[in-house]
Amino acid sequence: MAKIDPDKLTGPQKAAIFLMLMGEEFTSQVYKYLDEDDIKRIGIEMAKIEYIPAEAVRKVLEEANIEAKEMLGDVTVSPEEFLKQSLIKAYGEKGKEIFEEIKKEIGPETFKKLKKLDPKTIASFLSNEHPQTIAIILVHLDSELSGQVLQFLPEKLRAEVLLRIALLNKVDPEIVKEISDALESELQSVGGALGKKIGGPEKAAEVLSHAGRELEDEILSEIEDENPALAEEIRKYLFTFEDFLNVDDFAIQTLLREISTDDLKLALKGASPEIREKFFRNMSKRAADLMKEELEMMGPVRISEVEKAQQNIIRVAKKLEQEGKIILSKGEEEFV
């Protein structure tokens, strides 16, 4: 189950929260105006939700320009049950089929149990599994958690697992079920997808982006030795802090309004002079001068703190791109 972060809500998450707030009847009517793919996208997010905090409710209502003080509390209704009932109201028996497809796409119950364990425990649990099995399991977990698990896997396994994630296309649901059943037995001993595309270079890059820069370079070098074309494909999907050099000024200005000064200061501390200048150029003279002064006064900081701040900013940038507010281009794409 997913914990909702009010500051990092995606479009499908906002839609899921809004529909749950408006009730089953309203939601069942909305479904009739959406195509099945959109319903599944929203439904998957809805089914993943553990609970909705009041702050997330407030932000969604504000964005929808709705004032409803009586709604400003934690939402405790079962998202999965809500999804099922609203789909049945909209489509009858067909609604049940869509619900079952959504459940399969978010993976078996066993994978949900795995998400509750810490990354080190999951890595230890999976370290003796075949790399293909590990890859199938990791693509069913959140990318951030998968990246953390990757860090704790034996060194000889890391590149092989990411290589297999990148090459995954479709997985027979029977294989997923077999893996789930085997995991369930192992979990008990210690106290997905319906042919849907679940891996690929983009997913591999997403997982790798959460594994740390040093490990990122190391694993990509190993994959490049074995499959240079695939390594290049993965790199296309990896957005680094230095790639902000190729982002237009409007996007940088929009981003600056959404990120914290502390994150920016730490991120720029470990950035190249060119990147620093890119951000300074898009700030007011007073704000830029103040930031330069603070950077000069800063003592040494851990690389891990710099990378964390840079990742925070990249996450905000990707969220803004998802919302259609900015475009993140690495400078090679053409636009008309």
TrEMBL record:
SUPFAM superfamilies: FliG. InterPro entries: Flg_Motor_Flig, Flg_Motor_Flig_C, FliG_a-hlx, FliG_M, FliG_N. Residues 119-191 form the Flagellar motor switch protein FliG middle domain. Its main location: other. It holds the Pfam family FliG_M. It is a peripheral membrane protein. It is found in: Bacterial flagellum basal body; Cell membrane. GO terms for biological process: bacterial-type flagellum-dependent cell motility; chemotaxis. Keywords: Bacterial flagellum, Cell membrane, Cell projection, Chemotaxis, Cilium, Flagellar rotation, Flagellum, Membrane. One of its GO terms (molecular function) is cytoskeletal motor activity. GO terms for cellular component: bacterial-type flagellum basal body; plasma membrane. Residues 222-328 form the Flagellar motor switch protein FliG C-terminal domain. The keyword Protein transport does not apply. Residues 8-108 form the Flagellar motor switch protein FliG N-terminal domain. Transmembrane segments: none annotated. Belongs to the FliG family. This is Flagellar motor switch protein FliG. The lineage of its organism: Bacteria, Pseudomonadati, Thermodesulfobacteriota, Thermodesulfobacteria, Thermodesulfobacteriales.
